[in-house]
Amino acid sequence: MWASTKKIPVATRGDDKGKLYRPFVDPYEIRVLEIKPGANSDKLQGSLHHCSVEFESEPKDFFAFKGEILMEPRRARLTYKHLTMYALSIDNLTTPVFYTALSYTWGAQIFDGTIECDGHQKAITKSLEAALWNFRKPDRSAVMWIDQICIDQENSMEKEKQIPMMGKIYQHAWNTVIWLGESSPGSDSAIQLLEDASVRLQLRMDDIDPTDFERLGLPKPDSEIWHALWNLLSRPWFTRLWIIQEVILSRNLWVTCGDSLITWDNLSNSCIHFSTCGISQWLQQHFLDSSSTSGPVDICKAIMDLSLTKSHHEGHEYGLSLFRLLVETRYAQCYDSRDKIYGLLAVCRNSDRTAVRTSYAPGFTAAELYRDMTVHHLADNLGGLRLTSVLTSVDHDSPDLPSWAPDWRRPRETTALGYSTSAQSIYSPNGRFQPKNGQTDYTLNSQKKNELQARGIFFDTLVKTSDLFIDPDLTYLNPTTDNKTLLEFFRFASQLQHYPAPNTIFSAFWHTLVAGKDASGRLKCPSSFAEIVSLLLDVSTGLSPSLPGQTYSARQRRPKGKGRLELVNLASRAAGKTFQEVHTAMKLAVKNRKLGITEKGYLGLFPRHAEVGDGLYVLNGCHVPFLLREVDGAVGGDDVSMGEIILV
Q: Which residues form the Heterokaryon incompatibility domain (predicted)?
């Protein structure tokens, strides 16, 4: 019935004769690749078929009565939508075409593989060639959608039209297969470990000590299987940008590595268990290359967050906030920087999608795209928490972007202190946030696209800064020599002679060490942190007290051997747990930041680009203060009037 109402235009054959790619004639048209059967030694051969993904089954109303589904008006009404897991042939719209969508990593842009497609030699990457060898059947064709072949990558206009179709392509696929690559030593064992862990750890929510691995049916801590698992999770696919929408939109998702196979649900469940039970953190401590200058990506947590986003998306008809998706997927990598946004369009809400200009034109840069998207996000609500979410996502000094626009090309150098709305319960420099109808916290200059004007007040000036803390650490083993971060903090804070009431130098010291947060980053740091910091500070400096206003708990004041808190206690369960929380909170807060002292005598953490003379401002609606600098006559100084600050 639907096909009878649809008329496909006839393609005009022009200079495309003799070429591999026929032009699309319908807005919902895609190509799928038929991979011809063959043995291992046979050449790869295929054929492209044109299909439509426009058709969607109409929802049907059913009625529930005594547990049965009836086509009669009884009791509760239900809406049921049949999943349209196929495309329709353009040549005959009544013919379904079932296909598998492929999710994989392109690798280097070197096309030294090949497939013969409709008589044409098509150059492809080696990674794709290996996948096609793996999926080819000896006795029948396999039909797949593969972006590298099914989209003419040399045709920018075609790419621009196909990108908005990605959502439909993955939703209409019969299934999606993830190709991690060819097998490697231990990869089969790693896949089996993921299968086993999804069952063995399903009821565990607490931290698991490595000494309990064997009891839980897991490999010993020194087993090579753990290293193989680390290598598997370190494969490029897991940090690829395009996988995000591919995973979120796919209904029947499988993961393959060589000949090993696992469902996405089992893989993601294991990663969730590893993250919540502390095994993911243990893997990073043992196998992460400490020489890496960029922040490590916790793959298990990334997979857990992706699974939660997938569930969230399935429950939200209108999609997710594009800005929120960008924040959560900042670690993800892509070849073209514009794809940081384009790769999320299929899963974001429609209002964000329609506001984004999709263009691969050489003159349209990623910086322009990022600025325009940020302007759209801010313009949608001129009062509220959007200014905070945007400014706390700025972690760069990119010269081609306004100072207030995040640079999504780069991974974060620091852990955001104020992006999460939970930070409102920790920081409140301008009082508790009270949203009001019609409230305007900032304005966008329609004449100057790079200018934003925010309401705020000047508070203080930065007069001293420390060196940058690149790899902060905290230990109770050899503290006098190995607690370099803590000792640098101490030497810097010792420049203060007194501290503005009601705080002391010591209370400012330990709060700044963890940025006022607990290990989760969602709550205020507990008072128990002071005891641990006080103990470590004294044994590291050899002083007692080390700083003015330093406090000592009742356990610290007890005689030795009489229940006194000592370093050895930090290896125990109770005090050791608090130490680990302090350790985690400190690393998250301090990494790639500087210490600073303001003119009024306040101690604080500042961005890596902070300089003496920068101004500290409190902006309306923002629950963290911001450091601003006057550049080319803008921001602060003479440009501050009537409580407004111009950011460019």
A: 99-246
Low-confidence ranges of the chain (pLDDT < 50): 13, 62-80, 291-294, 636-642
Q: For residue range 611-620, list pLDDT tens digits in order.
A: 999 999 999 8
* CB-CB neighbours of 314 under 10 Å: 11
C-alpha to C-alpha distance for 558 and 173, rounded to whole angstroms: 68
DSSP-based three-state secondary structure for 102: strand
Residue 69 makes CB contacts below 8 A (sequence gap 6+) with 62, 63, 78
Which residues touch 632 (CB under 8 Å, ≥6 apart)? 648
With tokens 């990073």, the residue in question is 284
Instruction: Report the alpha-carbon distance of residue 188 to residue 339 in Å, rounded.
Output: 32
Q: Which residues of 194-233 are buried (b: 16+ CB within 10 A; e: fewer)?
A: bbbbbeebeeeeeebeeeebeeeebbeeeeeebbbbbebb
**73 token code pair:** 């008006």
Give this prediction's pTM.
0.85
Helix (H) or strand (E) holding 126: helix 126-135
Q: Within a 10 A sphere around the Cβ of 140, how many other Cβ atoms? A: 9
Cα distances (angstroms) measured from residue 119 to each of 21, 32, 37, 333, 621: 12, 16, 16, 34, 62
Q: Which residues contact 43 (CB under 8 A, 6 or more apart)?
A: 116
CA nearest to 600, candidates 457, 462, 493: 462
Beta-bridge partner residues of 33 = 48, 144
Place of tokens 């060819």: 182
Coil, strand, or helix at residue 41? coil
Domain range annotation of the chain: 3-8+26-179, 469-591
Strand (E) or helix (H) holding 227: helix 224-233
State how far the Cα of 52 lies from the Cα of 233, in Å rounded to an integer: 36
Please state the separation of Cα 415 from the chain's center in Å. 12
- How many CB atoms are located within 10 Å of the residue 48 CB? 17
In what helix (H) or strand (E) does residue 24 lie, and over which residues does it extend? none
Which pLDDT tens digit goes with each residue over 529-584?
999 999 999 999 999 999 999 999 999 999 988 889 999 999 887 898 899 999 99
- Helix, coil or strand: residue 266: helix
What are the start-end ranges of the E strands in 296-405?
Answer: none
Tell me how far the alpha carbon of residue 83 is from its chain's centroid. 29
Please list, in sequence order, all residues whose beta carbon lies within 8 angstroms of the beta carbon of residue 496, skipping any fewer than 6 positions away.
Answer: 505, 508, 597, 601, 603
Cβ neighbours of residue 543 under 8 Å, at least 6 residues apart? Answer: none
CA atoms of 83 and 314, how far apart (whole Å): 13
Distance CA 145, CA 130 (A): 16
Q: 262, 177 in Cβ contact below 8 A?
A: no
